[in-house]
Design goal:
The complex is a heterodimer of chains A (about 290) and B (about 400).
Chain A (H helix, E strand, L loop, with lengths): L1 H14 L3 E5 L2 H11 L3 E5 L14 H8 L3 E4 L9 H7 L12 E3 L34 H16 L4 H27 L5 E4 L5 H6 L3 E5 L10 H13 L4 E4 L6 H10 L2 E4 L13 H12 L2
Helix pairs in contact in A: 2-5, 5-6, 6-10, 8-9
Chain B lengths: L1 H48 L14 E13 L3 H4 L22 E14 L4 E10 L2 E11 L6 E9 L20 H7 L5 E10 L5 E9 L15 E12 L3 E13 L5 E14 L5 E14 L4 E14 L4 E14 L14 E12 L2 E15 L2 E17 L7
Antiparallel strand pairs in B: 1-2, 1-16, 2-3, 3-4, 4-5, 5-6, 6-7, 7-8, 8-9, 9-10, 10-11, 11-12, 12-13, 13-14, 14-15, 15-16
Classes of the chains: A alpha/beta (about 290), B mainly beta (about 400).
């Protein structure tokens, strides 16, 4: 009998989740679930299998944005190509830029690679800095704190629950980071190249050195001239690791690998971007497993 | 003996004390110098960080501005002087057609468009497109739109492109083909339904996207409406979209435009549109888009009943290349065709094929071939072949396009 009551309580609390939260990408969505628990209903808008810059603004996303009490976005220009027209047409005053239900996570993160000057002549450069901070596991506590503060602001009645969830999560995460750092300390080969500057935060954290990108400029497809230059650079510096993302073509990386003897590692850029990265910890574990040589 | 030991210890300790004292003195001096240096540095920094910005500068509030350029090189098997007097039987009489884009064999500069977007305040956003043709300035669109109305509502006011149908609200530079679908050109002309007026849109609070909108417009479009003694055009539509699996999305809509034409009689235009999009990868997709329009135009003693459709299939291969085909057809043409007696005016249709190359999302080269069987040139039904290379660029802060 007790079990049944408990179960119904649990179920009803799930049904009556008090806040609808939309996040643009998967990692932020999962952190939100960790803090919000059963009190939030999380919807991830952008599929992790696609380029986060070019999520298709499907009209079904309008229905999701329309029902949201809170929109958590990555920021730093990553959603510039798809989110603004959706926000404009979702007819939801709560999630407009500047409203209480709008949270730009990049405002809490120390952005790196901020260009001193910006021109489209340099390709698709993000003026606010590199927006791909989710690959750094140390950003997770920053996200968690910002999300906890926002949830408590929107739903003060349950603020104690959010605080409790946050404390629990932070403790768990800091012990995870210790084992993770220990694992990363074992990695010997620190020279890499990448397709797009997707992994700079991770590389900086664990003292990797990136010797270049497969794309000649951000957002520009590889050219043969640039590829040959990259091959020469890799040979000169004996770079043996090519970091490939899940959504770009893999032909160029394979070609470079053939010429240099390097290994192509497909690295997830977001939680659930590859099969192994099914949870938050497994997202970083997968990065570590595939980068560490 | 003891004495000696004490004495030597004493001297020793005093010696130590002396060296310690010197050391401390030196350290203090070094620290003083360091502090002085820091103070100078701080002072200099403070001098530098003094806010010397212009007292009334508003640069941070500059709106998003973009320049959109559209041009083409074109070859056609009809002389320019004859082509500009084209007719589409039952819809456009010779000399009445307006050809703002890609009119000439040779080179065309279609437009330089200046597009502006700005957040006005916490309640409004403003948009404007200044359309500059070689010898004409036009306010393509200029409107304000609410951002924070309750009850899922949004109001737009000003001059804007109606959300009737699918392609009507989109700008020429965002179409999949350079030319306007024949049925739109025939019923509304190149600007389609674009008027001063007011629009109200509502999004249903459902899991499935459903949007309903109504518009009251001036109705200046003389081809279907045009009785401008007062505002005469009312447009209504419902649009909905579902996803089938993660990668297939379907968007459909029904639209109605009810207005008064230049003979002071009612015109009703009905529209149905359907778009299917299968996402094959981040940069690859297959899009099938179709629209059917039906017009019931009452004249003084008769009623014109005319209809047509277009259907287009576009395959995006990767972020650089795409290709597509489109078919245009007039399906119904019940109107007075006595001016075209002796001329075959049945089976009006058009075939278009294109390949597109985008070196970067902001620039696009498009090569297209058109086989046009809808036109009367110099009193004769003429099948027209056209090959065109067009270039479109969007430079500056140009916002993302809708789905």
């Amino acid at each position: 009998m007790r079990k049944i009551i408990l179960l119904t309580c649990l179920l009803s609390s799930m049904v009556f989740a008090s806040l609808n939260v939309d996040t643009t990408y998967s990692t932020m969505g999962t952190v939100t679930k960790k803090i919000g628990g059963d009190l939030v209903n999380v919807t991830v808008l952008g599929s992790p299998k696609y380029d986060p810059h070019f999520i298709v603004p499907k009209p079904s996303l309008l229905a999701k944005l329309h029902r949201a009490d809170l929109l958590i976005m990555n920021g730093g220009g990553l959603e510039l190509g798809w989110l603004p027209p959706l926000i404009r047409s979702a007819n939801n005053a709560k999630i407009q830029n500047g409203a209480k239900g709008f949270l730009d996570m990049s405002h809490f993160v120390h952005m790196i690679d901020v260009p001193s000057s910006v021109s489209r002549g340099f390709g698709d450069v993000h003026a606010q800095g590199n927006p791909h901070y989710s690959t750094d596991p140390y950003v997770i506590p920053v996200m968690a704190k910002a999300i906890e503060a926002k949830l408590a602001e929107l739903d003060p009645e349950n603020s104690l629950v959010y605080k409790e969830n946050l404390d629990k999560f932070l403790t768990e995460w800091s012990s995870y980071l210790k084992t993770f750092d220990a694992k990363m300390a074992m990695c010997k080969d620190k020279n890499v190249v990448q397709y797009h500057e997707l992994f700079n935060y991770f590389l900086k954290r664990y003292e990797y050195k990136s010797f270049g990108n497969i794309e000649p400029l951000p957002g520009i497809s590889p050219s043969s001239k640039h590829t040959i230059e990259l091959i020469n650079t890799m040979k000169k510096n004996s770079v043996k690791i090519i970091l490939q993302d899940v959504y770009h073509e893999k032909k160029t990386a394979k070609f470079i690998a053939d010429k240099t003897g390097a290994k192509v590692s497909v690295i997830p850029h977001d939680e659930k971007a590859v099969k192994d990265a099914d949870t938050l910890k497994n997202f970083y574990n997968t990065i570590a497993d595939r980068i560490c040589q | 003996m003891k004495k000696y030991i004490y004495l030597s210890l004493l001297t020793f300790s005093s010696l130590i004390a002396d060296t310690e004292l010197d050391e401390i003195k030196q350290q203090l001096k070094a620290q003083q110098t360091a502090t002085q240096q820091l103070e100078t540095k701080l002072y200099n920094l403070e001098q530098k960080s003094t806010n010397t910005s212009a007292s009334f500068s508003q640069n941070a509030y500059l709106p998003d501005m973009a320049l959109i350029l559209n041009m083409s090189a074109l070859s056609r098997d009809v002389k320019n002087s004859e082509y500009e007097n084209f007719a589409i039987p039952g819809f456009i009489d010779a000399g009445n057609g307006h050809l703002p884009f890609n009119k000439n064999r040779g080179f065309n500069l279609n437009y330089a468009e200046f597009a502006i977007h700005a957040v006005v305040d916490p309640y409004f956003e403003a948009f404007a497109n200044f359309h500059l043709h070689p010898d004409e300035f036009e306010i393509g669109e200029a409107y304000v739109q609410t951002t924070s109305l309750p009850y899922s509502l949004r109001v737009r006011a000003g001059k804007f492109k109606s959300h009737f149908g699918r392609i009507n609200s989109q700008h020429q530079h965002s179409w999949n083909f350079d030319s306007q679908p024949i049925i739109y050109k025939s019923l509304f002309g190149p600007d389609a339904i674009s008027d001063p007026g007011i629009q109200l849109q509502w999004v249903a609070p459902t899991d499935t996207y459903i949007m309903a909108g109504v518009e009251a417009l001036q109705g200046t479009n003389g081809r279907s409406f045009g009785d401008t003694e007062s505002n005469n055009l009312y447009v209504g539509y419902v649009k909905s979209s579902i996803d089938i699996g993660e990668d297939l999305s379907v968007l459909g809509g029904v639209s109605l435009a009810h207005g008064e034409n230049t003979t002071n009689n009612p015109t009703d235009v009905y529209g149905v549109d359907l778009t299917l999009r299968e996402q094959l990868g981040s940069y690859s997709s297959l899009v099938w888009q179709s629209e059917y329009l039906y017009r019931n135009k009452e004249l003084i003693s008769t009623t014109d009943k005319q209809a047509g459709l277009y259907s287009e299939l576009v395959y995006q291969y990767n972020n650089n290349y795409s290709g597509g085909v489109r078919y245009d057809l007039i399906t119904k043409n019940d109107t007075d065709l006595s001016a075209y007696s002796g001329i075959d005016s049945d089976n009006l249709d058009r075939y278009t094929a294109m390949v597109e190359y985008k070196p970067f999302p902001m620039s696009r080269l498009r090569l297209s071939y058109t086989y046009d069987r809808t036109k009367i040139i110099a009193g004769e039904r003429t099948d027209i072949n056209e090959v065109m290379l067009s270039l479109n660029i969007a430079a500056g802060a140009h916002g993302a396009h809708n789905y």
